[in-house]
Design goal:
Largest sheet: 5 strands, parallel
Shape: globular
Order of helices and strands: HEHHEEEHEHEHEHHHHHHHHH
Strand content: 5-15%
CATH class of the largest domain: Alpha Beta
CATH topology of the largest domain: Rossmann fold
Number of domains: 2
Distance between the termini: 71 Å
Structural class: alpha/beta
Radius of gyration: 22 Å
Amino acid sequence: MTNPAENLSSWNVIGHTWAVRALAQSIATDHIAHAYLFTGAHAIGKTTLARALAKALQCANEARPCGACPACIKIARDRHPDVQISEGVPVGWKFDEKSPPPPPRANDVERRILKIDQIRAIQHTVSRAPFEGRWKIMILRRFEEANEEAQNAFLKTLEEPPSHTRIILTVRDPNLILPTIASRCQVLPLRPLAHAEIENALVEKWNVAREHARLLARLSGGRLGWAVRASADNALLDTRRAHLDELDEILREHRAERFTRADKLAKRDDILQTLDQWQGWWRDVLLMQSGDDSRVVNVDRDQTLREHASRFSFNQIEGALTAVRASARQLNQNVNTRLALEVLMLNLPGNW
């Protein structure tokens, strides 16, 4: 008999081999946790792994997941009656249990919130017995977007889960959710994939030209999901270019101009994506100033990186990176967006 923990190819997950092996072993030995918490950056593969785990749990064949049985096919198409994927709704959207929320987003731009009404609906769903599978499986994406009221409400489900229920949460950073929730889950932190692994996957599985795949692998930050989307949508690279151009403009502005800029940024839906790209930029500038060009991500903007590395001191660059990280963390905690961005504008280096 084949050991399911040794044959991992059927999981169809690129990278994260240690996590797949651990999950396969838990299924093979019937030590399945009642709740899992997959952590890691957006588009790093958390939802892909969650779907693969759901397939393995519901699959009817010996080598699980087989990918070919009715259960595996339905889960791949998000049509299995006992596997539900939920996430927050757009800010301002009014929850109505009779009207399903908009489908899960395919990018990192739209800002959403997971509300207590959704949690109550989920709790009602998991209380019912499975319709056709072994388990009732709930996948809650981006659980950091749940407000504190919703998280507290969900805690009861984690403390006393129905025996037929398995729960999978995905979160960018476990520090953004209540520690009592994280402590009741088996945590699997997904790490960024190697550039070569992403590059080869893009070439071999998605037929991306080698040179373009190499650039996307660098820019992805180890996030295969982002690289795949960027290979099919030039708008992602265009948006990134615009965000980095905007940062360059800000660094040449005076305080009054920056306050005006903060007001405009606060009204945008893609501010978290912008801050993420700014973090990558300042990390590259720091590497460039330290003489470590080999790990630079934004390789297509070498000249501007060198300009910033020579223009600003080490302390200014490190301070800028810290300030951008702090702003991103604050926005994920639902602080006043404009205030957080005004503080960031003052903490970025400038010629004054």
